[in-house]
Amino acid sequence: MNTYTMDLAGRTLRVEIGKVGKQANGCAFMQYGDTTVLCTATASKKPRDGIDFFPLSVEYVEKFYAIGRFPGGFNKREGKPSENAILTSRVIDRPMRPLFPKDYRNDVTIEDMVMSVDPECRPELVAMIGSSIAASISDIPFDGPCAMTQIGMQDGKFLVNPGQEAWDKGDLRLTVASVGQKVIMIEAAANEIPEDRMLEAIYMAHEVNLQVIDFIKKIVAEVGKPKHEYIHCTVPQEFVERLYELVPQEEMEKAVFADEKAIRDQNISDITDRVNEALADQEEWLPLVPEAIYQYEKKTVRKMILKDHKRPDGRQIRQIRPLSAEIDLIPRVHGSGMFTRGQTQICDICTLSPLSEMQKVDGLDVYASNKRYVHHYNFPSYSVGETKVSRGPGRREIGHGSLAERALLPVLPSEEEFPYS
Fold first, then answer.
1. Which residue, 98, 104, 159, 270, shows the most beta carbons closer than 10 Å to its own?
2. 313 within some domain
């Protein structure tokens, strides 16, 4: 077992490698104050067939034993992840995903299990750093390490990696991820912070990230495993040349240059069908067709924008889509509206309730207050012309709802002015 420590914002960050999780590709047992998180990175032995994306899943797992409590309700078996767990998983995923090879098709799972919580050391931050360490020391191809720092603000003063109470009640909640010398992700909620102060906070977080990255590099130098070889899912040049013969540049430009998205999609679908028919006798190339055409389409759109200064729907590069708004579409509800931008439409419905009906928050954050404002975002499959069984909101929908919620919350009237949920 190897143990590493560093001073992080006035507290000791302790990392143990080789103590537990020995079957995982990479594992880091993290402790920051009395907050403990077990972080693992595991990859499947073989690539998954029939996919054209990198199958990464990040699981941030909260258990009530971490704060010495039973779950509320009749059923004491903990089930689906909380909203906070889903949002934390997304924040960890966002900076790490681009650091894996785009053509890597092995399933990869990053799992962070919260074992104990010190209110002065947020487990979300520990999981973020631990995930980077686990992936970096593993044999999974990963172009890290990356690091994350959180900045809060109280009484106009910045707080580096603040405790839970200061984070919840402050005027700023900023998370910054860095890789190398560059910032790779920023997520924030703020109470109308001036732009210069926001930039100052980002630079402050980045400086701390550089220290954490150096710390992780030392760990990798001592206990990191050699990265394993994998099957590269690349499109052969011979196939690209054949595709360009079947679909000349002029034809692709004509296909993507249409006012309506449905027409563009149909044009690409027709091209795909024709290419599949032409290559029917070369079965080894057929799985490459969708990705190759997507890259061809992407390259064509980029050329049109940079060279011709036109978008696929004919707009100039500085021209926005037509905007329109309507109100009171739906009878009897408290409020409703429709906002339209081009072919994208959003229907909003607002409901008021007494303060007694605020959403109760039950999680590992002992300082979290009940939610007076809740913003739910739904993305039905018909909105993009697809079919899918509805099984409740997905992670993306929960994340987008949280984004809108954070944006509107600071400008809502106070409970005294407007005593409603």
1. 104
2. no
Dihedral, 388, 391, 392, 394 alpha carbons, nearest 10: -70
Helix pair 237-246, 289-308: axis angle to 10 deg: 70
Statement to judge: residues 262 and 399 lie in one domain: no
Give the residues of the chain that fall short of pLDDT 70.
none
Q: How far is CA 327 from CA 321, 343, 344, 349, 358, in A?
A: 20, 18, 17, 10, 26
Please tell me whether residues 18 and 142 are part of one structural domain.
Answer: yes
Return d(Cα 218, Cα 228) in angstroms, integer: 20
Are 201 and 66 contained in the same domain? yes
Tokens 């998370």 belong to residue? 175
- Domain hosting 373: range is 323-411
356 and 278, same domain (yes or no): no
Structural domain total, the chain: 3
- Extract the runs of DSSP E, i.e. beta strands, from 9-91: 11-17, 26-32, 35-47, 56-61
Closest among 58, 55, 54 to 41, alpha carbons compared = 58
The helix/strand count (H/E) of the chain reads as: 9, 13
Same domain, yes or no, for 31 and 89? yes
Q: Give the pLDDT of residue 141.
A: 98
Residue-wise pLDDT tens digits, 300-324: 999 989 988 888 888 888 888 899 9
Sheet strand arrangement including 182-190: 157-160, 146-154, 172-179, 182-190
Q: Which two tokens stand for residue 119?
A: 């209110």
pLDDT given for residue 360 in this prediction: 86
CATH at residue 293 = 1.10.10
- Residues 33 and 149 occupy one common structural domain: yes
Same domain, 373 and 282: no
Same domain, 390 and 241: no
DSSP per residue, 310-344 = B-TTS-BTT-PPPEEEEE--SSSSSEEEEEEETTE
- Domain annotation covers residue 337: yes
pLDDT digits (tens, 9 = 90+) for 349-386: 999 999 999 988 888 887 788 899 999 999 999 998 88
For residue 295, what are its two tokens?
């890259």
Q: Please, are residues 157 and 112 in contact by the beta-carbon 8 Å criterion? A: no
- 3 state SS of 112: strand
